[in-house]
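Students often ask why we bother predicting the structure of a whole assembly rather than each chain alone. The short answer is interfaces. A chain on its own may look different once its partners are present, and contacts between molecules only exist in the joint model. In this exercise we take two input lines together and write out one structure for the complete complex. Read the inputs first and try to guess which parts will touch.
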Amino acid sequence: MLNDKSRERNTHSALFRTTHAIDERWSFTALFSWVKQEEVIKPLTGKTHITSTTGISDIIALTQYKLVSKTNANLIFAAGAKFPVGSTNHSDPETGLTLNPDLQPGTGAWDAILGARYLYSGILRPTSVFSVHTIYRLTFADNRYEGRQVYEFGNEWQVLIGFGDSFFNQWLSPSLTIRYRQTQPDKADHIPRINTGGHWLHLVPELKVNFSANTSGILSGEIPFYRNLSGFQLTTTYRINVAVLYSFTT
Amino acid sequence: MHKYLLFLFSITFFSCNKENPPPSGPSVPVDVSVKIIQDEIGDTPIVVAGSAGLNFIVSFERTLPDGTVLDFPTPLQGLPNIMEDQEGNKWDIFGVAVEGIRTGQQLKPVNSYMGYWFAWATMYPGIEIYDDTNPPDEFETPAVTPNWTIPTTNVYVGAGLDAIPALDDPEFLQYRGRNYLDEEFYVKNEDLVIGVKVGEVYRLYPIPLLNWHEIVNDEIDGLSLAITYCPLTGTSIVWNRNIDGQVSTFGVSGYLYNNNLIAYDRNSESVWSQMKTECINGVLLETKLETYPIVETTWANWKNIFSEPTVLSDNTGYGRDYTRFPYGDYDTDHNYLTFPIDFDDDRLPRKERVHGVVVGEEARVYRFGSF
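Now the answer. The structure tokens for the assembled complex follow.
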């Protein structure tokens, strides 16, 4: 374990999500994002180094189908893709060398995405919501370094089980989610990378404040409480998310 | 109906840590006899001594400052003395005469070090393999990039500047067997350890620790040295930190050239190739590093050579588990390269450890199988 806190990663992002309902059951969603990736390295001696990149990230497009649509229950299936439109060639301004892939706004690879979401409200109180969400991401290869290496991220499966409620006339909405994530090893030139892939189990507390009908703020965190990783790899410890949401309907 | 959600901003903070793999290490020694190869590279007579079982190969020039060219017909068995010349002088693993009329004299080291075959083959395309007549495949040398001394085609950013932290104020300990049970010490018998000798001072730098730090900025007997090791090419090289009268410290740039360590000096922020031993980009472009000889062998051997060796302490201030190798099975999986390389020479398995010798523009490697 690295216990010296010498590395820190900050991701700032602005997301724009648009959903178009075709009818009562079918809808289409697209997610556009702009990200700022920042790596802060604080060695015990010497100076702190900050490297950052900014740019438009990959676009996610999903088609959704509402199989069950009741007053207190919804079951939605989704399928779509991640389009690798984000930049992958940001370079160090001093040397001109292309920065490492995890600092790039885009991934360079296509993903196929399958998901399902079940929502049930009114278990304990009329405003409470129980949710189960699962997502499978099938990844495709990326030709990195001008085609000199074929890199493929491992496929990913996530399950999120959450419970939330609203208080003070829906002004305050706390929730607690358990997130399980499993990834297969990445492959470079078709050879699995032993230091990739594994299982993560995180607890995700969230507090949403609804300032108005279309503006809200979210403060959430991620607390890891189980990990079983392949080999030796960088992984997240604690995560804090701060977000402001504005929604509008036409 | 169209519904839009605009996330005005979302900020995520997270820090990182690592999980660890099972340890790895070289195989158990079998044949512990020392053998000697007398060779010439260009017009330079050299002697290469080694033992597959004892896991070391060292090389020196055979010409003394007085012009005498020594022959070494007799290998000696048992460390630290490894060979005897035609005058009856006995020489140790550091190339110092320890018996005979030349006692105290030092053989001139050649620019040589251990490393993975693929690294030698791509840095010195077409390199000769001692006692092997197989020709290399055809290769094309990429063009040198402007403001660099190398082609940057295969220079990659593996990590951020100082993400792998060099050690600046290293602590040492006097290893006394009676003070440690071997299983308690972070270095195991089969682990490789670099030995550096300056004057009468010897210091040992275990590779299990260098895997995590790659550079130790040290001072030995008044000499400012950088002890460097690249875990991806298996190469250890020591150089003088005094460059043009200015003493600097070196850090790990995170860049890799053909997977080999690129260091940076903190005075000028120029970047330096470990295996090329020169400044490859920056204000000190083309400046050569002054290297110092090292001996790389196992911790078990060093404990036989010194009764109480001075060894780099694992009290570094960094929370690392030095008994674990950070790169999985990289050191044994011949297929596994982190980044592409200029030239992939398949005459030997990529991760075979060989001893390379560079004299002028010529280079040759020696395999453990030759000993």
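Check your guess against this: Chain A has a mean pLDDT of 90.
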